[in-house]
Structure prediction request, 352 residues.
Amino acid sequence: MNPQPGPLGHRLLIVTDAWAPQVNGVVRTLAMVADELRLLGDVVEVIGPDRFPTLPLPGYREIRLAVLPLRRLRRLADGFRPTTIHIATEGPLGWAMRRLCLARGWLFTTSFHTRFAEYLQARTHLPPGLVWALLRRFHNAGAGTFAATPSLQAELVGRGFRRVMPWTRGVDLALFAPGPSDEFAGLPRPIFLNVGRVAVEKNIEAFLALDLPGTKVVVGDGPQRAALTARHPQVHFTGWRTGAALAAAYRAADVFVFPSRTDTFGLVLLEAMACGTPVAAYPVMGPLDVVGDSAGGALSTDLRAACLHALACGRADARAHAEQFSWAACAASFRAQLVPLPEAAAQVEPQG
Prediction:
């Protein structure tokens, strides 16, 4: 039997091609928001690739994509009986759910997490205009598209996306908190840390090639790790870390370096600052919106200069800036903008 929501609760179906065991900001965001919504009385069902036969994404075996998911997806959706639907990604599951919703006249929202046009251009040199047209077609079929930052919202509107809605992010301020850490004891200081997927679109080479004092540390994994390890033997690669081990890595660093030019937000920026670690990054979408002109980091077109400037930033200032973000507020904003299915709208009791 399906659990029933509270009298004002949603039965929210989230369909996503990015889900555990993947480790990335999309998975983290969806998992945290789902947990927060359940605390508010909603029943949340997440359908990801783990429910389907899958094949690895070419060139990125850690990411697996559902194969011909429509029939099983239809059964799962019907079994859950949603009152609201959110399609989080533009992969096979996202397109299949979009098709199902359009065939049935079901309203749905989407969210824009990843700049696929730039990612594909970096990997394949495919003209980004073609990919943007496909993304626009995908999202404009819905009742609204969530975007994480004002910069991204403005860009999507400028590219012809309709009904773009704000949806910021949060950080676990209890887990990611200042404190002592001997995680990198013995390594020459200062410690310059990067956390995330080790892939070409993350522009990690721009960080590793910098002439900096101390030690560079990379926490994460991905298709570029072997090549970068061979090319930069002086860099300390740890592989993936999560939970308390990840927080300890942030706390042990002197500066968190974020060389990406294509991320739409960058949850790792908030996690680092919540641990009191200042950020160094380019002044591009993501860092401009998350760090901005706060005292929690330094932004510059010269990444080395930003790294050296961030060494002088106060750890208390970084933490104070991160405290402005919470998962509870993120989930509440998301929930307030969900669009009920037509046949479900009358089942939700009016407030007041």
The chain is about 40% helix and 15% strand.
